[in-house]
Structure formats: structure tokens, C-alpha cells
TrEMBL record:
Name assigned to this protein: Acyl-coenzyme A oxidase
Subcellular location: Peroxisome
Any one Gene Ontology cellular component term annotated for this protein: peroxisome
Gene3D superfamilies: Acyl-CoA dehydrogenase/oxidase, N-terminal domain, Butyryl-CoA Dehydrogenase, subunit A, domain 2, Butyryl-CoA Dehydrogenase, subunit A, domain 3
Pfam families: ACOX (PF01756), ACOX_C_alpha1 (PF22924), Acyl-CoA_ox_N (PF14749)
A biological-process GO annotation: long-chain fatty acid metabolic process
Chain positions recorded as FAD binding sites: T138, G177
Acyl-CoA oxidase C-terminal domain segment(s): 480-656
MF term (GO), any: FAD binding
Coarse class of the protein's main subcellular location: other
InterPro entries per UniProt: ACOX_C_alpha1 (IPR055060), Acyl-CoA_ox_N (IPR029320), Acyl-CoA_Oxase/DH_mid-dom_sf (IPR046373), Acyl-CoA_oxidase (IPR012258), Acyl-CoA_oxidase_C (IPR002655), AcylCo_DH-like_C (IPR036250), AcylCoA_DH/ox_N_sf (IPR037069), AcylCoA_DH/oxidase_NM_dom_sf (IPR009100)
Catalytic residues of the enzyme: E424 (proton acceptor)
Organism: Hibiscus trionum
Domain spans labelled Acyl-CoA oxidase C-alpha1: 278-439
Length: 664
């Protein structure tokens, strides 16, 4: 019997080769094959089941996470999975766990800031999970302001040890994932003090719990910080608190890749340049951007498939009602998000390349691109995570009432995803860093120092400040050079306007403070330009498969023009385009939506997500939504009894009361 597929008709409409698009999405055939194999492996394993997750209590959920993490590790060993495959396995298990921090932060921190001896000592144990690590930086009193951290690590020359101490309540470590209940070790950040002198914040490897009975070591107070946003969701993670009471660690447990403390307590910068730690930061941020495209594509996949199943109004002569995906408003809300998912995917791919490039440069003592790389990765982390968080909520609304059901998968996805706007740098704080970088670039124009990489366009500021957009007809907006110039001009003009306003202040710092909201907007403009440019660059590559490149060109135009439409005020106010050209962009956008429409289902199929990973009845591959929603409702614990518990205690007495209510 042929499998039921309510989307079959939609799939037949596709004008491109979906299998080839899957490869374009994955980045390469090999990446596609790994992802496909591992996702199916996870989906078919009953231990990784997650459909009952939102019903679990905190303790049950945490236990379930431990079970899954242990099983995942067992499978990694049994199947001899490579690092890439193991990473994919954790990704598809799709449950925040201590192991994310172990692999994602603890190991990279040692790799990035440890000496060769430290790496040789700690990494093999960490790779075998004989120790489990977390990344303990944030404190109760300070997160963004790392220099404000209060934990101290004081060198004791008598014993050749550091004494870690939490001098105040606000110095308690607060938030680190995996710290609460699992981690045996931490890379903990503390102010380094030698001979009474404070050298600022440094990283230390600290054992927290016994490797025999898991009890905290003497002087260590550790626990979980409590429930977080939403039920289920991120509560599978044991974000923790930690206090040190004069905890002693050997001197060689300070991460000494960049600076060192000698046996005599002398503080020294090592020969290795400080900038090397930036490599780790680029690594972590490119991962976050890749995760943004995953979360966004997942939400969009759910909303797109459901929009094709859902019908409201418009029945003629007793025929079927209109699929909500055919409403122009639905398309204008949904298709820019679909385009953003692809845009973030490709900019994430480029960031992977950037990581390799920056690592090679750092090892060759070439630091010339660092400030630009730092600003670019900070900004991309900020705009992709903010856009994704907003997009998941928009997808929930696009699914109407059923989007609010847990079984749509969207509430949990939202709750799990949104802290990405905060961790690894609060998004506004990051934009302000980009803003400062933009100002520095503008102030240096004319000094002979040439802007490089993603900021190179500022070298043409003179032209960009007075160029006129060539668009005369709607289709002119499909020309990549016109789009790029409009985005460059907007970014350059907003940055230069900020710099002029800052210069009006007698003290530049006052100007920065007063204009910080404008700076953040200029930073957004710069970062959106990067995403648009990288999408366009991607299209200059050879992309095989019937119609694949054509679809990506359409999506690229949708991404750029929907941003232009959303930020029309910026484009028009800064004089980059006229209001009439803005209207033409909108006209073109409407035409593009019609071109996306027949391909919409196939474009989300190309993400190649299993129903297990999607975790959504609305997003099911076969579109069999209503019977499954109905079935799912009956699984709710409230439906275990026909008459609810508490009926006799609370409902019946109200119904049977004999008092007279005065008003009646
Ligand atoms: C789910 C989750 C997991 C986490 N995991 C870890 C972990 O594993 N390890 C770890 O060490 N930490 C972790 N953290 C902590 C996280 O890194 C910090 O919360 C984050 O860096 C933000 O810092 P904050 O909490 O101090 O925010 P704050 O800086 O207090 O932000 C509060 C507000 O102030 C604004 N603000 C702050 N400074 C400025 C400024 N200069 N100018 C303008 N506005 C400003 C922000 O934009 C924000 O609106 C985690 C947090 C979460 C939510």
C-alpha cells in the first residue's frame, strides 16, 4: 500500500531537484550523507524518543537527559563515530544536556587557552569523558561585564598553588550549563592575584566533584539554579551555581597558553600572542550561527507544511477552502523566514571557512584581520539569533491556535532557543561592539589604513555616500550589484551619520553613550549587508541540480528585498533609495512570493528533517495533521480519567451548594 502523503500534490509542483537541494543545504554530499544517516539512527532508537518530554517533571526530565546522554555516548563508542558524526548525533538527540558544554565550551576553552602540556594532560581525559567539564564564567552579579567578575585566584608561593575564593554573594558562579549536577571539572574564570597585584580575569581548570562518589570536593558549594523559562525545554540542562571557599589548585591548572605565573609568582605574557584565544571565539560563534539556521529552518518547516494543510474560507460551490499558504499575508510573513533560513545557512558555512582562515593566519602571526573578524562574528551571532527567536514566535502565530499546542513543537523550540540571544554575549552588547568597530573604521578613513574583509566597502565610502540607486523598474531589484550597493550605501551612511553625531560631543565617550541606540542600528545594517553579500557570493559558485540555483536566486532576492522593505525607513532616510524605488522593491517582492509558492513544500523538504527531529504534529512529513492531533490529545494525563481528580473535592461542592447569593 502506498504511504499516505497529504503533501504529494505540493511535492509534485516543485520546479527543482529536491535531492540536489538537500546537498546544497547540507554543504556537501558527504555532510548530507552523515546527517541523513545519523538523523535516521537517532529517530529509530526508542531511547531517544521525545514525544512525552513536555509531560515530565523536572527530575524525570533531567533523568531522561542523563539516560539519553549516556546512551548517545555508548552509541558513539559502539559505532566508532567520527567527531563530526558524534556532533551530529548529539544535535539530532535534540535535548540540551551537560555534554553540549563539555564538547562545546570546556574542550574548546582548553584547546584555545591551554599550553601544549596542559592540552596533553587534560584533553585525552575529556575526549574519553573520564572527566566532564563545564565553562564557569558568569556570576550572579556580572555576565556581560567580564572585567567585573569578582571570584579571585590568589597565588600562594609557599605551596605553589592558587587559592580560588568567592568573596561575595554576587561572586557566586551562576548559569554555567552542566555545572549544577554533572560536571566533575570546570574551566572557571577568576581574577588572578599575585604578590597583591590584580592581573584581571583568567581561566583555571578546577575539579569540582570527586571522581569516585561525585560529592563536591572540600570548599566547593555547588547546585542547580532552578527552573527556567517554559516547562520541559531548557530545563533538561543543569545550569548551576558555584561558590569557592579557599579552594586550592596546583599552579599548573591556570590556563597558561597566553599568560603565565612562574614558580616565584611572577606574572608573564607568554610568547604566544594573546589574540590566539580569538580562534576559539570564532569557532563558538560560527556554531551558534549554524544553530540559528537549524532552529529557524525547523520552525519554518513546521509552519510551511501546516500552512499547506490548513484551509480557511474561500470555498466556492462547495469546493475545498483556500490553503492558508495561498494568502498573500501568510506568504509575506512566511517566505522571508524561509529565505532567512537559507541565508543563515550559507553565512554559517562561510563562517566555518573564516574560522579555518583565521586559525591559519593566527598561527602565521598575522593578526591583521582580527578586529574585523571579531566584529563580524559578534554581529552575525547577534542578528541571526535575534531574527531566529522572533521567527519562531512568528511561525507559531502562522500556525494559528494549533501553533500554541505543545504538540506543534513550536513552544518548546521557542523556549529552548531564545536564550541564544543572551548567552555567548548579550545581543545588544555585541551590536555595540560592532558599532564601536564601525566608528573606528570611519574615523580612520583617509588615514591610509585600508578596511579589509567584510568592512572593505567602507574604503569606497566617498562613492557610497553620494551614489544614486539605478532602479527604474521592479525587476531591476533582481540585479545583485544593485542590491549590494543599496545595502552598502545604507550601512556606510548610517555609520558616517553616527560618527558625525558622536563628534559633536566634547567627549567622544559621551557621544558613544548617548548614541548607542543609533550605533546598534548601524551595526544591524552592516551585519545584514554581510548576510546578503555572502548569499550572493554563494550563488556565484557552481551549484548542481535542475533548478536548484534558480530557487536559491529567488530566495536570495526575497531575503534582501524583505529586509529592504522592513527597514525602508533607513534606506529612504539615508537617501540610498527613493520612496518610489522602495515601492518597486515591494512590487518585485510580491512577484517573488508567487514564484516561491509552488516550491515551498519542496524547499522545506530539502532540510531533510526526520519527523523525530521536527517533533511536531503540524510539521509531519505526510501532512496527516488532524487525526494525529486528535490522537495526541487523548494521551494527555488529564484524559486518563473521564472525571478529573479533584471533582469530589472542588467541583461537586460548587455545583451542589445550597447558599443563596445575595445579588440573585
Ligand atoms: C540558558 C543560558 C545558559 C548559559 N550558559 C552559561 C555557561 O555555560 N557559562 C557561563 O559562564 N555563562 C552562561 N550563561 C550566562 C550568559 O553568558 C550571560 O547571561 C550573558 O553573557 C549575559 O550577561 P548578563 O546576564 O550579565 O546580562 P546583563 O549584561 O546584565 O544584561 C541585562 C541588560 O543590560 C543590557 N546591557 C548590559 N550591558 C550593557 C551596555 N554596556 N550597554 C547597553 N546595554 C547593556 C543588556 O543588553 C540587557 O538588556 C548562560 C545564560 C543562559 C540564559
Amino acid at each position: 500500500m502506498e504511504a499516505l502523503d497529504y503533501h504529494a500534490e505540493e511535492r509534485r509542483k516543485a520546479e527543482f531537484d529536491v535531492e540536489e537541494m538537500k546537498i546544497a543545504w547540507a554543504g556537501s554530499r558527504q555532510a548530507y550523507e552523515i546527517s541523513d544517516r545519523v538523523s535516521r539512527l537517532v529517530a529509530s532508537d526508542p531511547v531517544f524518543r521525545k514525544d512525552n518530554r513536555t509531560m515530565l517533571s523536572r527530575k524525570e526530565l533531567f533523568n531522561d537527559t542523563l539516560k539519553k546522554a549516556a546512551h548517545a555516548w555508548k552509541r558513539v563508542i559502539e559505532l566508532r563515530l567520527s567527531e563530526e558524526e558524534a556532533g551530529k548525533l548529539r544535535f539530532f538527540v535534540d535535548q540540551p544536556a551537560f555534554s553540549d558544554l563539555h564538547w562545546g565550551m570546556f574542550i574548546p576553552a582548553i584547546k584555545g587557552s591551554g599550553t601544549e602540556e596542559q592540552k596533553a594532560k587534560w584533553l585525552p581525559m575529556a575526549y574519553k569523558m573520564q572527566i566532564i567539564g563545564c565553562y564557569a564564567q558568569t556570576e550572579l552579579g556580572h555576565g556581560s561585564n567580564v572585567q567585573g567578575l569578582e571570584t579571585t585566584a590568589t597565588f600562594d608561593p609557599h605551596t605553589d598553588e592558587f587559592v580560588l575564593h568567592s568573596p561575595t554573594l554576587t561572586s557566586s558562579k551562576w548559569w554555567p550549563g552542566g555545572l549544577g549536577k554533572v560536571a566533575t571539572h570546570a574551566v572557571a574564570y577568576a581574577r588572578l592575584i599575585t604578590n597583591g597585584q590584580d592581573h584581571g580575569v583568567h581561566g583555571f581548570i578546577v575539579q569540582l566533584r570527586s571522581l569516585d562518589d561525585h560529592l563536591p570536593l572540600p570548599g566547593i558549594t555547588v547546585g542547580d539554579i532552578g527552573m527556567k523559562f517554559g516547562s520541559g525545554a531548557y530545563n533538561s540542562m543543569d545550569n548551576g551555581l558555584l561558590r569557592f571557599d579557599h579552594v586550592r589548585i596546583p599552579r599548573d591548572q591556570m590556563l597558561m597558553g597566553v599568560s603565565q605565573v612562574t614558580r616565584e609568582g611572577k606574572y608573564m605574557q607568554s610568547d604566544v600572542p594573546r589574540q590566539l584565544v580569538y580562534g576559539t571565539m570564532v569557532y563558538v560563534r560560527q556554531k551558534i550561527v549554524a544553530d540559528a539556521s537549524s532552529a529557524l529552518s525547523r520552525a519554518v518547516c513546521i509552519a510551511t507544511r501546516y500552512s499547506a494543510v490548513r484551509r480557511q474560507f474561500g470555498s466556492q460551490n462547495g469546493g475545498p477552502e483556500t490553503q492558508v499558504i495561498d494568502y498573500k499575508t501568510q506568504q509575506s510573513r512566511l517566505f522571508p523566514l524561509l529565505a532567512s533560513a537559507y541565508a543563515f545557512r550559507f553565512v554559517g558555512e562561510w563562517l566555518k571557512w573564516l574560522y579555518t582562515d583565521v586559525t591559519q593566519r593566527l598561527h602565521a602571526n598575522d593578526f591583521s584581520t582580527l578586529p574585523e573578524v571579531h566584529a563580524c562574528t559578534a554581529g552575525l551571532k547577534s542578528i541571526t539569533t535575534s531574527a531566529t527567536a522572533d521567527a519562531i514566535e512568528e511561525c507559531r502565530k502562522l500556525c494559528g491556535g494549533h501553533g500554541y499546542l505543545s504538540s506543534s513543537g513550536l513552544p518548546e523550540l521557542f523556549a529552548v532557543y531564545i536564550p541564544a540571544c543572551t548567552y555567548e554575549g548579550d545581543n545588544t552588547v555585541l551590536l555595540l561592539q560592532v558599532g564601536r568597530f564601525l566608528m573606528k573604521t570611519v574615523f580612520q578613513l583617509g588615514s591610509g589604513k585600508k578596511p579589509v574583509g567584510t568592512i572593505a566597502y567602507m574604503g569606497r565610502a566617498e562613492h557610497l555616500l553620494q551614489c544614486h540607486c539605478e532602479v527604474q523598474r521592479a525587476e531591476d531589484w533582481l540585479k545583485p550589484h544593485i542590491i549590494v550597493e543599496a545595502f552598502e550605501a545604507r550601512s556606510a551612511r548610517m555609520a558616517v551619520a553616527c560618527s558625525k553625531n558622536i563628534n559633536k560631543f566634547p567627549k567622544q565617550e559621551d557621544g558613544f553613550a548617548e548614541l548607542s541606540a543609533d550605533l546598534a542600528e548601524a551595526a544591524v545594517a552592516h551585519c545584514q549587508l554581510i548576510v546578503v553579500s555572502k548569499f550572493i557570493e554563494k550563488l556565484q559558485q557552481d551549484i548542481p541540480g535542475k533548478g536548484v540555483k534558480r530557487q536559491l536566486e529567488i530566495l536570495c532576492s526575497v531575503y534582501a528585498l524583505s529586509l529592504l522593505h522592513k527597514h525602508l525607513g533607513d534606506f529612504v532616510a539615508s537617501g540610498c533609495i527613493t520612496p518610489e524605488q522602495g515601492a518597486l522593491a515591494n512590487e518585485q517582492l510580491r512577484l517573488l512570493y508567487s514564484q516561491v509558492r509552488p516550491n515551498a513544500i519542496a524547499l522545506v523538504d530539502a532540510f531533510n528533517y526526520t519527523d523525530h527531529y521536527l517533533g511536531s504534529i503540524l510539521g509531519r512529513y505526510d501532512g496527516n495533521v488532524y487525526p494525529k492531533l486528535y490522537e495526541e490529545a487523548w494521551k494527555d494525563p488529564l484524559n486518563e480519567t473521564v472525571v478529573p481528580d479533584g471533582y469530589h473535592e472542588y467541583i461537586r461542592p460548587i455545583l451542589k451548594q445550597h447558599i443563596r447569593v445575595a445579588r440573585l
